[in-house]
Amino acid sequence: MQAYETRRATEAAVSVASSLGLTADDAVVLHNSNKLTLRLMPCGVLARVAPVADQSARFEVDVAQRLAAAGSPVAALEAPEVFVRDDHVVTLWTYYEPVTAQAVRPADYAGALERLHAGMRKIDLPAPHFTDRVSAAQLLAADRDRTPELADADRAFLAGTLARLRRAVSKSGRPEQLLHGEPHPGNLLSTQAGLLFVDFETCCRGPIEFDLAHAPDEVGDHYPGVAHHLLRDCRILVLAMVTMWRWDRHDQFPDGRRLGIEWLSEIRKATA
């Protein structure tokens, strides 16, 4: 979000917190992209704020509530409602002080993801298919107005990679289930309560390898029953998707264009 949008989003979060009797005299920005993540002080509650046009908040809250009831390793909600303030939607979550120890061990990461997947198999919730997310990247590749700085050769290469690997993963024959969608290290908290996943707006259905593709390479070595050839395809597919997003002229990811160039090179090496 731009500075003006950030200010208004922060005001919306403070307003919601105050209406619930929480003291929020200040807000610390923890993450700023298409959504704003704030730590409200001194109450210490975490707020996620998005434009009201974003329809994922209710879905994310529903998923988090059901997974918590199933005993999955997920961050807790501070309030179960989705609040609307002016043109923003606000959700409130428990803030966890980070454990500043050594990096998460791959075996522990894999174990937490396996428990999350087990909980996801217990809940019945309509969710998009992973191919819907691939389709969004493919549409972006075809839209020159949205990606004006992407060279024609790179555009053709990314479009071809997305199409080929989408087919390969879809036809793999692997069982499909509800997935986190983006269980990368940024969405895994190391807390005093253990490893907890956050950010469920990207949940989708697909093979577990699609989720594992977002985790560090070593994690897949500790997750039982992985189809490693499929995991390789999923890793390249996911990298092609996030690379495509970096070329969107509306992308607000920090240093996104440099990463887009760097990841293009990685994909070419991986598919050579």
TrEMBL record:
Provenance organism: Catellatospora citrea
Record InterPro entries: Aminoglycoside_PTrfase (IPR002575), Kinase-like_dom_sf (IPR011009)
Aminoglycoside phosphotransferase domain location: 47-216
Protein name, as recorded: Aminoglycoside phosphotransferase
